[in-house]
């Protein structure tokens, strides 16, 4: 009787140890997965360089909106934004609070991330830049509770402008 019981206990102990080993193996697998997918999304992200004044809160919120939507944001703080706008050919009537670059493409003001991505998928109008002139309420980074209609304008190097996207009743 005694030896039978002992054999039974040993058997249970072996099963418990076996299960423990399986659990450990599973945990190792799980911890490997998230880091792998993080690397993938970082690689897929489009790099955007954002020139903004150090005190601009809505510029910071817009940068966060881009980061949330998969952009790899690089922020350059400057007090000389007018010079940056001139360097990159932003027309006066297209100007807003911040100026950004995706490669050579200028992104001026609170342009939604999805509109930038849509343009990059299908470039058109010989565009030098996309702009939301001024700072309309309701644009990404300008969530004030009020939602004004606004347009995303594509401008080219000759000063020509076309409406790229319209946002109404959103
Ligand atoms: Cu702003």
TrEMBL record:
InterPro entries from the UniProt entry: DUF411, Thioredoxin-like_sf
Keywords (A to Z) from UniProt: Signal
Highest taxon in the source lineage: Bacteria
Residues in coiled coil: none
Signal peptide from the UniProt entry: 1-28
UniProt protein name: DUF411 domain-containing protein
Organism in which the protein naturally occurs: Marinobacter nauticus
């Amino acid at each position: 009787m005694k030896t039978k019981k002992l054999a039974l206990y040993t058997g249970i102990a072996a099963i418990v140890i076996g299960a423990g080993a399986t659990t450990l193996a599973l945990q190792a697998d799980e911890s490997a997965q998230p880091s792998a997918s993080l690397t993938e999304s970082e690689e897929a992200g489009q790099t955007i360089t954002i020139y903004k004044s150090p005190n601009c809160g809505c510029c910071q919120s817009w940068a966060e909106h881009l980061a949330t939507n998969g952009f790899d944001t690089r922020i350059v703080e400057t007090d000389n934004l007018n010079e940056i706008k001139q360097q990159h050919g932003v027309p006066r009537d297209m100007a807003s609070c911040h100026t950004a670059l995706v490669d050579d493409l200028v992104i001026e003001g609170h342009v939604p991330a999805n509109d930038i991505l849509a343009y990059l998928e299908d470039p058109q109008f010989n565009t030098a830049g996309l702009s939301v002139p001024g700072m309309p309420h309701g644009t990404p980074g300008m969530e004030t509770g009020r939602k004004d209609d606004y347009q995303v304008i594509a401008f080219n190097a000759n000063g020509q402008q076309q409406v790229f996207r319209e946002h109404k009743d959103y």
